[in-house]
Design a protein that fits this description.
Blueprint: H1 2-18, H2 21-25, H3 32-35, H4 41-53, E1 79-82, E2 90-92, E3 102-104, E4 107-109, E5 117-119, E6 126-133, E7 148-154, E8 161-166, E9 200-208, E10 211-212, E11 218-220, E12 223-228, E13 231-238, E14 260-261, E15 272-280
Antiparallel strand pairs: 1-15, 2-5, 3-4, 4-15, 5-14, 6-9, 6-15, 7-8, 7-14, 9-12, 10-11, 12-13
Length: about 280
């Protein structure tokens, strides 16, 4: 019996020693990484969709604005300043009397003896559309040729404010910071996009008004972006202050201001306007 038992023990011990290392480890539980299955395409897409939603913004919802039938027609939220019928939205700058410029056949023409006119309402930040025309029979040269101005904020009498220049710059040499589409005496236009006299010119303007601290110092400056006949001519230009004929530009505190059109005193025939509208920007 002892001989038989000894032989059995030896055989068992020898079998254990000769078994492969892998067989010895087969009872060890597999690690989690070893059991993880590759992500399916569906699972990967779901993860990406979840990540994308983290950067989606759903509110506030922008208001619905119905565009005009053409790019020059006023959209549904615009205030029409001149539709070709009357000057009810305008007053004379010098005494706030009814604007005395001539209206005929859907067109408003400057009356130089009346002087500048401005809107009854005041504005802060806005988008403006305005069309203007140099007469075919224009005379003169330099600044004395179809001179006028669009004052984006009228801050006082006369020519006080911030002027986007109006002038016949079709084959008419003048100082470049005073040609059409310049921010007068401050910013040269990026291009001369003038059509010839007798054809309608188009300004589309974004005006960001300056803001001021309680002591009158500038908190944020004014900015202008403008297109002339669809061509970018002022690209978010930062104004240095009001536009002056003489001297360096300076800011003076105001909150809201009318939009002003200039009756320039040069001897050339007066220019005309049509289709003027504004969208206030909050």
């Amino acid at each position: 019996m002892r001989t038989t038992l000894s032989i059995a023990i030896i055989v068992t011990f020898t079998a254990v020693l000769s078994s492969p290392a892998g067989a010895q480890q087969s009872t060890t539980p597999p690690s989690p990484a070893a059991t993880q299955q590759p992500a399916t395409p569906q699972a990967s897409q779901a993860a990406r969709a979840a990540q994308a939603k983290e950067t989606e913004v759903w509110e506030p919802v922008p208001p619905v604005v119905t565009p005009g039938t053409t790019n020059s027609a006023p959209p549904s939220d615009a205030l029409v300043l001149f539709d070709g019928t009357n000057l009810d939205q305008w007053v004379t700058v010098k005494d706030k009397s009814p604007a005395g410029w001539k209206v005929d056949n859907g067109v408003m023409t400057v009356e130089k003896s009346v002087g500048n006119i401005e809107t009854k309402r005041s504005f802060k930040n806005y988008q403006l559309h305005l069309e203007w025309r140099i007469p075919t029979e224009i005379t003169g040269s330099d600044q004395a040729r179809g001179n006028s101005g669009l004052f984006l904020a009228s801050t006082g009498p006369g020519d006080d404010g911030y002027e986007l220049q109006i002038l016949d710059s079709y084959n008419n040499k003048t100082y470049v910071n005073g040609q059409a589409a310049s921010i007068y005496k401050q910013s040269i236009p990026l291009a001369n996009a003038m059509r010839k006299p007798g054809e309608w010119q188009v300004y589309d303007v974004i005006w960001t008004a300056p803001t001021f601290n309680a002591d009158g110092s500038v908190k944020t400056p004014a900015f202008v972006t403008a297109f002339h006949n669809g061509v970018l001519v002022q690209n978010h230009f930062e104004l240095k202050g009001e536009t002056l004929y003489i001297g360096k530009p300076v800011y003076k505190k105001y909150d809201t201001a009318p939009i002003k059109l200039q009756a320039h005193g040069d001897p050339s025939p007066p220019i005309s306007f049509r289709n003027i509208w504004v969208r206030e920007l909050k």
